[in-house]
Amino acid sequence: MNHPIPNTKDALSCQIIIPQKQVDRHSDIYVSMVSYTHQVAAKNWFIAMVSTTVETANPEDEIKPGLDLLGPIEQKFVRVSDVYKPKDDGRESQIFISESYDATTHFETTCLDVLDIFYRGTGEDFDFSKVQHTLAEEQY
């Protein structure tokens, strides 16, 4: 797109979640937009992603409420991806496989999957209090 999403006060990035009940669906619709300020597009260009879990034989129709929020679209790509889950939890084989990314744009389910893999692999919850942040003394 060559413009930010309308009605976002010209935000250079944003995330919108359309609740499932507002669009008579079983799954929410996720809209995420980033821009040239994130070094992912040329100056004054914006990349928007609209995603959901497919529920019908017409996936593009399912994301229409999200697409309608975007305003004019310069170029659009539509892709449907399968979601995969491992067949076993890896405890016996010691092979720990993550699930595919889902439709969410805030990565909560992906983070929970990583924490679950850690637990299955170690038998312990990840302890965030042990993470230490240090600043590099050298300036680059």
TrEMBL record:
Q: What does this protein do?
A: Regulates the GDP/GTP exchange reaction of most RAB proteins by inhibiting the dissociation of GDP from them, and the subsequent binding of GTP.
- Species of origin reads Limulus polyphemus (Atlantic horseshoe crab)
Its predominant location is: cytoplasm
Q: Which gene encodes it?
A: LOC106477061
User: Belongs to which family?
Assistant: Belongs to the Rab GDI family.
* Location(s) in or outside the cell: Cytoplasm
- Alphabetical keyword list: Cytoplasm, GTPase activation
UniProt-recorded name of the protein: Rab GDP dissociation inhibitor
